[in-house]
Specification:
alpha+beta; single chain; 13 strands; 13-stranded mixed sheet
């Protein structure tokens, strides 16, 4: 995959998803360009993006890979309808799995919409199995503070020192997990900020918040009225739900200061304690896109279900 193919990837999305989107939303959907987010996917794993070409050299499918240390997953992934049911989809998935295995990933998975039967059939035939749901929760922001608390800082260009802290915090949640590469993308893509949370004078939590200037997806979680929390993680051994409440509140403050109307967060259903915290703070499962089926190659459960980790493999 190379950046000059992004326009072709947009066209594949239109062909692959138009019928599904029309049925889902009850009207024809205009697909925005995803060039901005494709750039973050490719820069995150430059060797992990792949494109399938037909005999004429025309792109008919693509796949992006993401590796967070020893945790790897893939998506977005698209194949034009005329090539669905052929070997193209399987070949792309097997190629990305090979890449993740070469990269040292111990956990390999994906997320997909439960109503797309073709995807579910493809993935389960390739050995993936269901282990959880990913929920996207949203909250309409009331009026309130626009200044961050003294122990939270907004960082637009993360330093090497901060990335080392992000790596350390990630590792407390799961062996080999490393979110630092995703935070480092802010150095090239000014699409948000990283909030750092200090406790006893040490950074023990962070939130990567995206604030897009235009719509980059089909859902309100990616539009110009919303702040999307891409990742929120806190030290599993030092932080509890009161810390989660404080950092989530800081994310809301950041959203208000950016003149956004809503905030969206992802969470695996297995993080039940944090899910209940989010409900108590007024977050609700988003009406239009409540959940993703989450699959992995082997039996898998989050190691610390009472910890604070908001994230999604859908990217």
């Amino acid at each position: 995959m190379t950046a000059d193919r992004f326009a072709a990837m947009d066209k594949i999305d239109v062909k692959a998803w138009s019928n599904w989107a029309t049925k889902r939303f009850g009207r024809a959907i205009k697909f925005p360009s995803k060039a901005l987010v494709y750039g973050t996917y490719l820069d995150g794993d430059p060797e992990g993006g792949f494109v399938a070409l037909n005999d004429s050299g025309k792109p008919v499918g693509y796949i992006f890979t993401r590796t967070f240390g020893k945790v790897g997953f893939f998506g977005p992934f698209g194949v034009v309808p005329s090539y669905q049911g052929t070997a193209v989809g399987k070949a792309l998935v097997r190629t990305t799995i090979d890449y993740m295995e070469r990269s040292g990933c111990a956990t390999i998975g994906l997320e997909t919409m439960p109503e797309t039967a073709y995807n579910l059939g493809l993935y389960t035939k390739l050995g993936f199995r269901l282990f959880s749901l990913t929920l996207r929760l949203q909250k309409s922001l009331p009026s309130g503070a626009k200044n961050l608390p003294s122990n939270v800082k907004a960082v637009r260009e993360p330093t090497d020192e901060l990335l080392a802290q992000v790596q350390r915090i990630s590792g407390t949640l799961e062996d080999g997990l490393d979110f630092s590469k995703e935070v480092a993308l802010l150095r090239k893509y000014p699409i948000g900020t990283c909030l750092t949370y200090e406790k006893d004078s040490q950074v023990c939590g962070f939130a990567l918040c995206y604030a897009f200037n235009e719509t980059v997806g089909l859902y309100p979680a990616s539009d110009a009225q919303n702040v999307r929390v891409r990742i929120l993680a806190m030290d599993a051994y030092r932080c509890g739900q009161e810390d989660a409440t404080a950092l989530i509140g800081a994310c809301e403050t950041y959203a208000r200061s950016s003149n956004r109307a809503t905030i969206t967060v992802p969470i695996y259903a297995e993080y039940y304690s944090t899910l209940i915290t989010l409900y108590s703070l007024g977050y609700r499962v988003h009406d239009d896109y409540p959940s993703l089926v989450k699959l992995a190659q082997r039996d898998y459960h989050v190691p610390h279900p009472d910890a604070i980790c908001l994230n999604e493999w859908a990217g």
